User: What shape does this take?
Amino acid sequence: MQTKECADAASHEPSGGLRAAQREFTRRRFVEAAVTVFAEKGYVETTIDDILRRAGASKATFYVYYDNKANLLLDALAPYRCEYAVLVRQFQQLVEPTLADFESWISDYVDLYSEHRLLLGAMHQAEVFEPEFRGRTIEAVRNYIDMWDKIKLIETSKEPRDLLELRCVLLYSQIQRFMYVWQLEGLEIDRSSAVCEIAAAWYRIIKSA
Amino acid sequence: MQTKECADAASHEPSGGLRAAQREFTRRRFVEAAVTVFAEKGYVETTIDDILRRAGASKATFYVYYDNKANLLLDALAPYRCEYAVLVRQFQQLVEPTLADFESWISDYVDLYSEHRLLLGAMHQAEVFEPEFRGRTIEAVRNYIDMWDKIKLIETSKEPRDLLELRCVLLYSQIQRFMYVWQLEGLEIDRSSAVCEIAAAWYRIIKSA
Amino acid sequence: MQTKECADAASHEPSGGLRAAQREFTRRRFVEAAVTVFAEKGYVETTIDDILRRAGASKATFYVYYDNKANLLLDALAPYRCEYAVLVRQFQQLVEPTLADFESWISDYVDLYSEHRLLLGAMHQAEVFEPEFRGRTIEAVRNYIDMWDKIKLIETSKEPRDLLELRCVLLYSQIQRFMYVWQLEGLEIDRSSAVCEIAAAWYRIIKSA
Amino acid sequence: MQTKECADAASHEPSGGLRAAQREFTRRRFVEAAVTVFAEKGYVETTIDDILRRAGASKATFYVYYDNKANLLLDALAPYRCEYAVLVRQFQQLVEPTLADFESWISDYVDLYSEHRLLLGAMHQAEVFEPEFRGRTIEAVRNYIDMWDKIKLIETSKEPRDLLELRCVLLYSQIQRFMYVWQLEGLEIDRSSAVCEIAAAWYRIIKSA
DNA sequence: TATGAATGAGTCTTCATTCAT
DNA sequence: GATGAATGAAGACTCATTCAT
Assistant: This one.
């Protein structure tokens, strides 16, 4: 699902010479090592040394590239964030979305999530105790409300804005935790039913508005 | 809201002699210290030493009572867990619940959650990286499904069981994350609207069934 | 030359029980190890590990007792500082000091300095780059001026106070650096001549006043 | 105060071609950067990287020019050392110096010192823990004695040579430490009084001889 | 000549846990 | 039952220095 516009986010595609390529190569090794080790041991239990060992690099080299583990995770997340941003933009371009539109969008989102699930698991852990990551939740909620806001459904509604925002928060909460329980805690879920049910809930917000 | 049947969970009320009372006294000091410090610094940042200092106890004493920090948290959570269990039982005794029933129940749950919010925050952190706590999520989900199961709505429904379970998971996800975002991340929410909206969603599951 | 009143500074004499004695014992081991290693490698080159190895203690133990190397040095210097303070008090009690008084005092000071010379060497190094030690020089100068001030020679003099203070600074500078060059750089010096010459310079300050 | 004969010491004036000029240019950049950074952070706290960053040069380039930080400091000190050497020669040419001669010389020395004070501060730090710099003190003392020796006052004196040397050491100690306390520790001192007092002490050595 | 990527070797610091008293 | 001295083990981070380009 790697879209063209996110290739750069993934790779910091070296524009220039050999040096740049070399640098990019190393950076990518760190990212790959991190992804692997985070997947194995989770973010918390992973030490910088673990990543180093996997990447076959030395401690000092790590600090040339990153300030700390959180930093590296952020870098590793870049592709996901970019692709998610693309999805958000697509959502915002929906005009009078149908149930099918929502199903299709959610399906894409599920794909994206499951593609990056282990990294997202690491991110959830980081959110708990990396200062850099804490407080992102609120931001994410606002982003989500924003996403709905842009499709002009909120402001044109007869319902009070506060109520609509509350519903957004509830939808956000639902999908977030659900994805986590499903993709990361391994609860068995029937994919298409899930997409349908969530889409239905999303659609209801429009109908009621 | 401390119900009578949970007093014991909170205190391990000493049945017996002086020794037991003394022991109970010390245990309670640890729990109180833990609650305070977890509230201040969060579970992750809190060291056993922090708790000790607050409790005015010594290192070794701690290990007489608990194996580790997670253990102590579990102990501190006992009152919450007990009261939550009471709530669950009340839910299961609902017969043909009305919207008002759900609103009332959810309202009680919100009370319970907010009463223990800081401790629950600690718990969320612990879930991320304490082996003892990991995997509790699935269990919690199953419990939740069970709760609904007992009110006989699932099994008497015409809808396939899988779908009803899925809806439970979605409701569970929704309220869990919502409570977290509201109570712990500090998102401003209108309480009564929230209760109404959630209750409505819960009620819908019955109607549709 | 260990005076009675400084025994405590040296040892933190345990007033109490076994525990206190044990603690004091360990602390003293650290101090002794530090003195030895500082003498061997100088303060700068000495790592905490070096001291640990010599003391036969573990890293963690060190941090139970001290926050850092500078802290330990400060502790090790306590006896010297105490004895120096005694000397200062003796100086201040001189009434109409004679040349012989100065000679005697300086001689004592030389004894004290040479008794602690290696530790004082470490201190000089620490003054260069331990924040805790930086800025002590000015303080030491003021102390020295104070010492002269107390013998009432400054204030009763016809000379302006500023000039007398300047002379004090010059005397301070002279003896400080001289002791360093002699005792720590190993320049060969005839002790009694040195004492005489310095005393003469000190005496001149009174005469001229 | 840059005398003509020291211009070379400052610049290693390129005699030859373009290459040499280029080389000299880079070297000077390092020196300037070093002076600035040493002044800001002191010698100890300054890392080679700091200097590099300031000079806008790269790691490897540094090692083309210098072996280490101490080396660079030595290079940066060249102008000072040269000018000091000039002063020393002037001193040695004094014939039957008067009090005014000494005052004038000391005044020049104060100028020189304060012009280079921050670099001299760096040097004092380096003396503490750079092998290259350690042991320079003794050498400096001997140089100072030598300076007095050359004016033939020592050898023609009736006093024993040892005593005269001792007095030199005391004068050396005095002015060294005094300059440090004054110029680098920031003790407030009246310049002309200081010059007078020191000169008086120097003059006394002649009189007594 | 100039560079910057890579590193070895080291240092400080923290914390949960044990054991003799 | 309570204590606090001691520690093992690990982790984060820094810096001078080298080497291929």
Remarks:
- The longest helix of chain B spans residues 18-45.
- The mean pLDDT of chain B is 89.
- Residues 19, 22-23, 26, 57-61, 64 of chain B lie near DNA strand F (CB under 10 Å from a C1').
